[in-house]
Design goal:
By secondary structure, the protein is mainly α. 34% of the residues lie in helices and 7% in strands. The chain has two domains: 3-77 and 170-246, Orthogonal Bundle (Cytochrome Bc1 Complex, Chain D, domain 2), CATH 1.10.760; 259-440, Cytochrome Bc1 Complex, Chain D, domain 2 (Orthogonal Bundle), CATH 1.10.760. The longest helix has 21 residues, at 3-23. Bound molecules: heme C (HEC) (2 copies).
Length: 443
């Protein structure tokens, strides 16, 4: 096939993709697809091709971005998609011993640290859609060896994270507002922990980490991919918000809500918008108050010893429980703090935890607040795919608010759980659940 024919095919495919994302929301007027969301359409087409084609250059492992950010799965990876592909691979292998699906590379097997290239236990990937992300430990952080209780020699740690959808990315990056007390990217970034400040930085690292490209990826390739990513939206509405922000006009709030959805939006404004506020993240115009937060989604889950318990979180699946490690932090004043988590979040970037004090200023288990546009399409939820449905998400938050309340000394109602500093009134009530869910499904 000659090059110009290939290029035309990819251009067509990109336009088709644009039409597809815009028709996801039937409420929205169709927008012209010719604009490529302010990007050069030829660059976008090249980026689409790079995103979907496997990298077979520079020692790469043949993986493409689309192997994990599956276009037909709203650019995320659901556990059901991973499992179906695994079963298909087993069937293909009966006929062809070389059959391959680049999703199943040894680095993402549970037993990779013991069996290396021969690792073959893909439980976390198949059952939960999780990928291994390896972090170097900050200088003041050590891991505890569970069998001896002493410090281990490891200088890196693996955490397991779900593949987020690659959509609405122009809306969810750094916004120069309301900084968190610590870098990196104190006003927001990409990845679950916000550690990358731009899509280019993100793509460069994805090429090295997931596709195992050796050396620095070509800058043109990185720019092409980022340009393509800036054109992916979960709905015409999300695209229109991005266009409004780009042209400096204020995006309007949605008007076409049913009575139930409008009630749900009021609940959302009270219970959720302090973190998921702002039109980039939902359809509210409320500014974000909390940039990074711990919403108790990690394992092990907090347990209340009071009888009857004041909050009850759903227990983690046994495989997720097995990803828990104990960390020892040495604080600036030389004290040692040991804590357990399946994913300490931003504390792996900064090494900063506090012994006592304002939890908001601590990096322990803090994750970036994700955008919720198109959220109905991308179950399961949370960084470890631990909530199967939006119902489970809402139920988790009801317990989260009870947890916050149980933790507070008498007379203290923190802004995260209170609108007036006196009453614990942010928590969704049982009778508001249906309305809140109806609103979440409009996003
Ligand atoms: C092996 C699976 C896999 C592959 C291949 C992969 N990703 Fe990802 N991607 C992930 C996971 C897992 C995360 C979340 C990682 C984290 O938070 O530390 C992620 C995060 C992202 C994000 C951040 C989204 C957000 O909302 O913050 C972007 C953008 C992204 N990937 C783009 C890419 C691009 C571009 C490529 C190809 C160069 C790629 N990914 C290849 C698994 C993958
Ligand atoms: C204190 C800040 C805060 C509040 C309040 C909050 N969230 Fe979140 N939300 C977060 C953070 C941080 C995450 C990322 C957690 C994770 O990935 O494990 C998140 C994740 C989510 C997700 C999963 C997104 C995904 O792509 O997996 C959904 C859905 C969600 N929140 C909905 C809500 C709803 C509904 C409410 C109100 C009842 C709410 N949130 C209140 C901070 C908050």
């Amino acid at each position: 096939m000659n090059r110009s024919l290939m290029r035309s095919i990819f251009l067509l495919a990109t336009v088709a993709l644009g039409v597809y994302t815009q028709t996801l929301s039937k409420r929205e007027p169709r927008l012209s697809t010719g604009q490529c969301a302010g990007e050069d359409c030829v660059v976008v087409a090249r980026g689409f091709r790079a995103f979907t084609e496997g990298m077979d250059v520079l020692g790469a492992n043949g993986r493409a971005c689309a192997d994990c950010h599956v276009p037909a799965d709203h650019f995320q990876l659901s556990p059901s998609n991973a499992e179906a592909r695994y079963q298909l691979l087993l069937i293909r292998r009966q006929f062809d011993s070389n059959a391959d699906d680049p999703l199943f590379r040894a680095t993402d097997a549970n037993d990779f640290r013991t069996n290396g290239a021969d690792a073959s236990d893909f439980t976390n990937l198949r059952r939960h859609g999780l990928i291994r992300i390896t972090f170097p430990l900050p200088a003041n952080v050590r891991l505890v060896d569970e069998s001896s209780g002493g410090l281990s020699d490891e200088r890196e740690v693996d955490v397991w994270r779900a593949v987020p959808p690659v959509a609405n990315l122009v809306l969810t990056g750094p916004d120069n507002q309301n900084p968190f007390p610590r870098e990196p990217n104190s006003t927001g970034g990409y990845q679950r922990d916000g550690r990358f400040g731009s899509l280019e930085e993100q793509a460069r690292n994805a090429l090295k980490d997931h596709a195992k490209l050796v050396g620095e990826p070509p800058e043109g390739l990185v720019k092409d991919i980022a340009s393509f990513e800036r054109t992916i939206f979960s709905s015409g509405r999300a695209r229109a918000i991005a266009e409004a922000l780009r042209s400096g006009t204020a995006p309007t709030e949605d008007e076409e809500l049913s009575e139930l959805e409008a009630q749900g939006k009021a609940v959302f404004n009270r219970a959720c918008a302090n973190c998921h506020g702002g039109s980039g993240f939902s359809t509210t115009n409320r500014p974000v108050v909390f940039r990074y937060h711990d919403t108790k989604t990690q394992c092990p889950r907090a347990l209340d010893t009071a009888d009857p318990p004041r909050f009850v979180f759903t227990a983690c699946a046994p495989e997720l429980e097995q990803t828990v490690r104990t960390y020892e932090f040495t604080t600036a004043t030389g004290e040692k703090v040991r804590r357990k988590s399946s994913d300490p979040g931003r504390a792996l970037l900064s090494g900063f935890v506090m012994i006592a004090g304002q939890p908001a200023a601590d990096d322990w288990n803090k994750l970036d607040v994700p955008g919720l546009h198109g959220i109905r399409h991308t179950a399961p939820y949370f960084h470890n795919n631990s909530a199967a449905t939006l119902e489970e998400v809402v139920d988790h938050y009801i317990e989260f608010y009870k947890f916050v309340r149980a933790q507070q000394p008498p007379g203290v109602a923190p802004p995260v759980a209170s609108t007036d500093g006196v009453n614990f009134d942010r928590q969704p009530k049982a009778e508001e659940r249906a309305a809140l869910l109806a609103y979440l499904r409009t996003l």
